[in-house]
Amino acid sequence: MTNPPAQERRLLDSPRVPALLLLVGVGFWAADFARPQGLLAAGTMVLDADRDGLSDRQERILRTNPDAVDTDGDQISDAEEVARQTDPRDPDSLPGFEPINVGMAACQGEGVLTVTSTIFLRSGNPHGLDVRFGAVLQGRLIPLPTGAILRASRIGILNASEGLLFVVQTPFPGGYVRAMGGLNLYATARDVIGGAVAADALNLVDFSGVTMSIEPVPGGQTGGVIYVPLTSGPDLPVSFNAGLVCWQGTSEVGSNGASSVQEVESAGCEPMDSSCSASDCASSVGTTIQILDPGVLIGG
Ligand SMILES: [Ca+2]
Ligand SMILES: [Ca+2]
Fold first, then answer.
1. Minimal CA–CA distance to 129: which of 150, 108, 107?
2. I want to staple 267 with a disulfide (CB 3.0 to 4.6 A). Which of 38, 154, 248, 296 is the partner?
């Protein structure tokens, strides 16, 4: 994991400063996108060939087909599978009967970190939906201003296999994760009428200037994580090799407020259709990572 330069680190030592940076950043983007030309610019930048709510760039990171609404052919769109936290590439991975669910994904390009929050609402009544966003800094949950987030975002409302699907794409300045060393974002969604709640979290770190998402290892094994780069192909440094992913063996060594602190005990590139930098991956051994369990956000 790369630490920010000494000067930035001193600045960020104050627990209040990172939260302030984040809020100022969101405000900047909110102001930018509130202008009509900002909306036009955003519209031309975000390519979504199959119009399923996930950008082509995001689909490359999710390894779904950007030209097919339903990559695995199970009659549930890729975006709905992200929201309902099933595998959009496995037709045997099917959702349950939950009234509401939320799933987050992210991608980075052209200096922008785009966070996509997808919300599934079985009732299909948008007036009954309450969505909140936040970040975790130094273990503390910091709610972000919902109005500013939504004004800064591109919002899509799509039909789901049952009910409705909301897709909120929020741009953040791409340097945040590097400046802070790591950033955990979360979203919660509540069905106001039925009372059900759901949450998801994104755990982001920086590897030599590449923003990575820390994700569970495939297959639901415990005691490890994978690092998925949020850029792909030629946007990655030459040290990254395709067909591999940084696979880390971790053990929990404590907690920091809402986050679990885990020490990386082993790390290496393993076969998977992602990308891995062998030297960066190996250098993560001995570092600690902080992972937010979305369950704590909803008392689960
Ligand atoms: Ca798409
Ligand atoms: Ca599907």
1. 150
2. 248
Whether residue 1 lies inside any domain: the answer is: no
Question: Which tens digit of pLDDT belongs to each residue from 187-221?
Answer: 999 999 889 999 999 999 998 889 999 998 887 77
- pLDDT tens per residue across span 144-188: 999 889 988 999 999 999 999 999 999 988 888 888 878 899 999
Q: Which ligand sits closest to the CA of 77?
A: 2
Rg (CA), the chain: 18
How many angstroms does the Cα of residue 74 sit away from the middle of ligand 2?
5
Measured over the CA atoms of residue 119, residue 170, residue 57 and residue 244, the dihedral's sign is: negative
**Dist CA 185 CA 118 (whole Å):** 14
CA of 212 from ligand 1 middle (Å) equals 21
Which ligand is nearest to the Cα of residue 62, counting in written order? 1
219 CA to centre of ligand 1 in angstroms = 25
Alpha carbon of 101 to ligand 2 centroid (Å): 16
Q: Which of 204, 232, 253 is where one domain is finished? A: 204
Residue 52: band (very low, low, confident or very high) from pLDDT cuts 50, 70, 90: very high
- Is there a domain that residue 278 lies in? yes
